[in-house]
Amino acid sequence: MASQASLAVIVGSNRGIGLQLTKELHGKGHKIIAACRKASPELSAIPSIQIVEGVDVATPDGAAPLLKALQGQHISLLFLVAGYQHYDKFGGLDAAGLRIHFEINAIGPLLMVQAMRPNLGKGAKVVIISSKMGSIGDGRTGGNLYGYRMSKAAANCAGATLARDLKEEEIAVGLIHPGAVDTDMCRAVRASMGVPEKDRGKNLLAADVSAQRVLKIVDSLDMSTSGCFWAADTGEILAW
């Protein structure tokens, strides 16, 4: 997938899937810019990558540190991984809780792509990490989690629209559900749902396995598949 000169930018690289994508892409020979709010020890331990802190998709100027670091470089792969999930259920919903999901999961990634657009050259790929919970037509993921589901559906709409708007520039856009992954975010949600600690990692994919499956789909992403919504754990194209 990579050449030594190709640049991969991962927004949300300090933990979970973003961290594993950073490790995998580094191992494939990409030049890496790892963007995050604050670096983790695990991210800092990866050799020969450029870490850019202070990048926050939820703030209006959150892309500024990343734009400064890019200095006109062309991005081959742009990953929007940063996300937010908080357990909510009907009967206990509030506007602020719903709104923060949209700000981080949908509005933030879209504005980040817009900010990076001058650095996306012909043939670049933009990957938005989505979720099967954002599929209205799938119906396999139960109820509740309104903020997360609605915001991921909005992210899917944004990605599909981006695919159309970036078509003339031959920039492919992919929306990928990484599977149910063993991350701090997922474990925290399960804790808030009352799942016992011993069961919070049950039936979850290891983050490195998920990252490898995501990258397999990214390998096949081109202009003929731009705008599609995939499940990395099964390889299927998901319903909107």
Automatic annotation (TrEMBL):
Coiled coil: none annotated. GO terms for molecular function: oxidoreductase activity, acting on the CH-OH group of donors, NAD or NADP as acceptor. Transmembrane segments: none annotated. It holds the Pfam family adh_short. This is Uncharacterized protein. It comes from Coccomyxa viridis.
